[in-house]
Design a protein that fits this description.
Blueprint: H1 3-23, H2 46-51, H3 96-116
Helix pairs in contact: 1-3
């Protein structure tokens, strides 16, 4: 993975954390079981663990939609570094498996930092 790809993933997760703290509330990360976290599974991804499954998230269909344009600075879909449409990994030019794996690693790192306070 290139430095630019790693940076894009770090930025997406940071925006996701910012969004969750604003919309879900401080301490949302206490509900995440990192040992069960799988960013390629709608039931145990970040949104899945918070809301039962990705599609039950209250913001599904508004925040997570197919109108995303990262170059335009749009903060939808993949920009929050959560479960994403199938095309999302193409924007960082890596395979779907590698994309979700990198997202998961970054989420786990950031949640560990949040837990340390």
């Amino acid at each position: 993975m290139t430095i630019a790809q790693e940076g894009a993933i770090r930025n997406r997760v940071a925006r996701g954390i910012e969004y969750l703290e604003k919309e879900v509330g401080k301490g949302w990360w206490r509900q995440i079981k990192v040992t069960k976290l799988d960013m390629n599974d709608v039931n145990v991804c970040i949104a899945g663990q918070l809301f039962g499954d990705y599609f039950s998230a209250p913001f599904f269909g508004s925040v997570f939609n197919d109108d995303y344009n990262e170059d335009a600075g749009d903060k939808k879909g993949v920009s929050f570094g959560m479960q994403t449409p199938s095309w999302a990994f193409n924007s960082v030019r890596i395979s779907r498996r590698d994309y979700f794996e990198a997202l998961q690693v970054e989420w786990v790192k950031k949640i560990a930092v949040l837990r340390k306070g």
